[in-house]
Write a structure and sequence with these properties.
about 20% helix, alpha+beta, OB fold (Dihydrolipoamide Acetyltransferase, E2P), EC 2.3.1.-, 6 helices, E3-bd_dom_sf
Length: about 475
Amino acid sequence: MADIKTFYLPDLGEGLPDATIVEWHVKVGDSIKLDAPLCSMETAKAVVDVPSPYTGKVTKLHGAAGDIIETGSALAEFEPDANAKQRAESQDTGHQHGPKKSVGSPATDDSHKVVASDEGGEVEETAAAREDEGTVVGAMVSGSHVHVEQAANIGGVKAVPAVRALAKKLKVDLTRVRPSGADGVVTMKDVKDAAANGSAALGAAPARSVPRSVPASAGRHLAPELPQPEAARTPVSLAGKPVRTAPPSQQASGQPEQLKGVRRNMARVMADAHAQVVPTTLVDDADLHAWIGKQDITARLIRAIVFACKTVPGLNAWFDGKNLTRTLHPHVDIGIAVDTDDGLFVPALRNADVLDGAGIRAAIKRLRTQVEDRSIPASELSGYTISLSNFGMFAGRYATPVVVPPTVAIVGAGKLSHDVVAVIGGIEVHRRMPLSLTFDHRAATGGEAARFLKAMLDDLALPN
């Protein structure tokens, strides 16, 4: 009897409990070589290729595109080629050949526990710091270099997994997209352009409406009945009485949609934050009347946050609610909330306290591009010391932004407005920016938060 090996989904380097299958690069019965692309998986951070742990024949695939697979659960089964050189089971490559660990197993030993947040930074590590050698997928070893996704030639099309995922989402046929990248690689821009102009739509044209059938008794000489327009909804019935509707629990329209990837992780993080944090929000308006010339609003916001962090260090901190410890940071790494169709990303603007206006703008542009392309490293989506949500670029004046542990505070910037302001001897119209500061009241006092907000207001009031 053939020796069948089961491959279990490894931790894809982010400590998340599951991942979504984007596409399989093989089918049952195919032969595959060691470390060749097996499938593409979407996590909360990126789309990555999972390589094959064996050289041999694929005998079973656990799940189809769109299915969610838990970390440590069976992903695929193989019949290894007895004549081919296989990797030793004990070789440390990041492949996990055993099922997911149960509670009480060595993998869950508290001596190696790291208390952290998927959207925040590390709070506590009870064992000595060590490199992560069990979470990288493929024949790789620990190091400080960044692994860049390579474009794979599948079906005659060269593209990285993130591009393939975007094409699937936008219903674009990659085989009909004109590549503009080096060596004929299809880029994100190529897919977006094809989706915009409709030059590579996936599948055939939409089916036309089918007329309703006519009963046999109606006679063969009658034409099929044409579809009737749906009756318009009104608040009263034909009898002139108020229309009664059933509650959604009895009858609901639409189909439930399983949260995946970024949105799935966002739901977990927000629920954890709600359960762990004691939030309090202060609001005020920054007067920008003294500004000279056109200025970068985001850069000024970040500069004001940095100034406030230096003035009141207690909000530029991490808080460990379990052990009731607070860690103040000498540097300022700001998590910038970026809203996308896939969900919320919070990349970290590192060392904001040493960047000038041009440096801030360049760093934000780089982070946004990496988020849109889904090429941002997972390490850049955690470890920030305070957060900023610039929701006012869309709408809204004040908010209660969510503090994600282990951070202590988040600043929300609302939509700019021109307000009537009382001045000595009369009134004037000033441009003002609404600010909302939400903080964890376990780690900071109301006085600290008020002084932090005052420091921001003072910095934003300066001419330049």
